[in-house]
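Hi R.,

As promised, here are both runs. First protein below:
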Amino acid sequence: MLTEEDARRLVLAEIEGMRGCIEYDLQILRVEALPFGWIFYWGVPRDGRSGQRPRLGGNGPFLVDRENERLIRTATCVPVARQIADYERRLRREAHARNTAAKRAARQRSTATPET
């Protein structure tokens, strides 16, 4: 299970990999806690003189799942709230599939004839 600090290191490593393509100083700008982990918004800090921030294309935030240690880069063309809801639905489907498989395995074990 990840801590927020572990998640931050994952995101920073991902951002570091983009530094060769982007000439600006990239950093995490904001972090929000979610039921399953965190969302990390990243980009270029505001310019101290003008107060402006350069616009980057493709800098959708990262979702980090604390349980399964997934790092998911979100799209910029879909609202963040929708992507979070989609991921939460995915987690529920995966949990349901695990539960179904566990029940099936338990039934098979209980109906198997013991060898003598």
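And here is the second one, sequence first, then its structure tokens:
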Amino acid sequence: MCGRYSLSKSKIELEERFQAEMLGSFQPRYNIAPTQLVPVITSDSPKGFSFFYWGITPDFAKNKPVSQKFINAKAETVSQKASFKSSFKSRRCLIPADGFYEWKKVGKKTKIPHRFTIDSGEPFAFAGIWEEYENESGESKHTFLILTTEPNSLVKDIHDRMPVILHREDEKTWLDKYSSESTLLNMLKTYPTESMISYTVSQQVNQIKNDDPSLIKKTSPMDQFGNYTLFG
């Protein structure tokens, strides 16, 4: 599962990295959570950023047989499940990010937040699918899900799933409407352990209302818990 991520780069940095135009303003985000409106790049508009809701927002859920809990889709079954296969076939997207968070259980009540990034420090893209919904007012809204896969050894110690991080050279193919299913499925692999890093961050990330640069800074176990024994 991927339930929180960051996109701390500037508008200019994102436009340069993804060769896409972002209309309007954008403020770096350090604690993106489900139901929030965030930038994606779709197969329908690969030269520009669109702003979609992550997962199913509450007003959509009222008149849809899909609950708010759908924020991820398993890469292994995305081409087969009735709820996802149409989107996988024709509505794919890149989800720009520069890190994601997972929580490691220590004891019965303690969870330690970790941030995962790629070792270059550059922005990257999760593989995603998107959908269009009509809310109760008849307004058309767009949502996206992040595809997940088996974790690499870095993530495995903390969680049994991780988001699909696309290799940069595969991003255009992922958005190409003419890419074959076999080609697309072959991209949905676990990102290499040796190309990623992780570190502990502040417990302030636990609260969705917190969204500032301090959340992505490395924080030692002593800063969080007063000792080092939890990590050995």
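A quick note on the second one: The helical segments are 11-18, 58-61, 85-90, 153-156, 171-175, 181-187, 221-225. Let me know what you think.

Best,
J.
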